[in-house]
Amino acid sequence: MLADAFPMPASASVPGEGPDDNPPVRGQSSKPRTPTSSKAPQAATSAEHFAAAERRPGTPSSTPSLFPGESPTGPTAPRAHSMAAPGRDSELRRTFPAFPARAFRSPASSASPGSAADARFAETWWGNAWVTALEEGALDAKRLARGRSYAEQGHVDAITVTPGLVLAYVQGSRPRPYRVQVRLRTLDDADWARFLDAAAERPGHIAALLDKELPQGLADCGVPLLPGPRDLDPHCSCPDRGHPCKHAAALCYQTARLLDADPFVLLLLRGRGERELLDALSRLSATRAARAAQEQEPAPLPGVRATEAVLPRRLPPLPAPLPVPPHPEQPPVYPAAPGGPDPFALDQLATDAAARAHALLSTGRDPVAELTLWQDAVRLAAARPGSGLTASTRALYASLASAAGRTPAELARAVAAWRQGGLEGLAVLEEPWDPPAGRFDRARPLLLAADLPAFRPWRNHLTHPRGHVQLRLGRDGLWYAYESEPGHDDWWPRGTPDLDPVGALTGLGTPNGL
């Protein structure tokens, strides 16, 4: 916005600049060029940049590409020349699209590259080391300031980097851009050998290079990776003979941005490509690792000789087992917590687990392992002490019945049967069967001899004529007594099982009362 409000004429120049700032020749337009604000600089990879980068000098274009902040009718209208040729890129030739223009900066902030108000141009320490070499070797700070302004306004076209050379076209104040080269001495084989040794010596150096970073220790390994104040050798087709001219300075500033993004650009300038260096580092690291493995003496392996291993031998006897505890230990007391599990239920489960572990340790078998889910639910409910359905008991019954797919009433009846005779008592409740002749047939005369009426037989059941008392014969040979309201057929286990049917009824009252 400020750039549009304060246009800068193309003929305006910093005092002391070279002959490139002469007035335009006859027949050329002298319209001012207005800088345009842009976002922060970043690597340009859009199709437009690559399309502009692929145009060779002198090749016509149906849609000419404009430099940032310039009008097609101004003196610097279309970019007619470009060093870009991505199709010719190889291991030792890399082409980078032109950087977009940076946000417009006031003249006061860019008056001098070394002023306190001026921010660093590059973002990394090695990029700023490149800028330092440029600025310390320059003979005219004003040309540097103008070159930096050119770089920030996007006047530098696509950049091609080869060993020892950086090339680009830079747009000046005249319509035709200038061809700019910056030369840098390449390293010899001895320097590269020292560099590779320093990089392979520490794995962190290789990891940093793969992350596009240049470690400070690697740059200080005795190999001149970064240029010094007089190492950059600029050449430009403009008539200005300054060292450097503003066009070469602009290219050097933009090269610092390339180094920010990829330090392998610096290594390519010094003579070797990225793939060649990584392959050499891989081979050197593998050679060092193999040499270290050979020099290291193998550690003796523990073990015995094969002849000793196959010899017959007698194993020592196993130690005697520890004595079985006389009874299961009591679990710790679990405190109640808001929203937590019932501490009484936890205590019951822990006590049950201890009892099962004690039985398994003393007898070698788990009495609960073969129970079904329903039978185990009945067992757990029957182990709950107390009688009657309290609030906590109702909650337990509801939870266990839901897990077993039954109702709480069915669970309560099954609990009574379990408490009467355990697993066999539950089977008597739920599984009628046909007993063989013998004990079942002798029960009726025994009941008659005790002055009881004739009980009606059905399978393993003997029912009182009034329908309120019933005897059931279990597979274990015991008689189980049941009671019900007369005529309701709602049988509940009562009393204690007995081998004598009359004895099984004694818990319900005297025989004469029946």
From TrEMBL:
Keywords: Metal-binding, Zinc, Zinc-finger
Domain of life per record: Bacteria
Biased composition (Polar residues): 27-40
InterPro entries xref list: Znf_SWIM
Domain SWIM-type: residue ranges: 221-256
Region (Disordered): 1-90
Protein name (database record): SWIM-type domain-containing protein
Provenance organism: Streptomyces longisporus
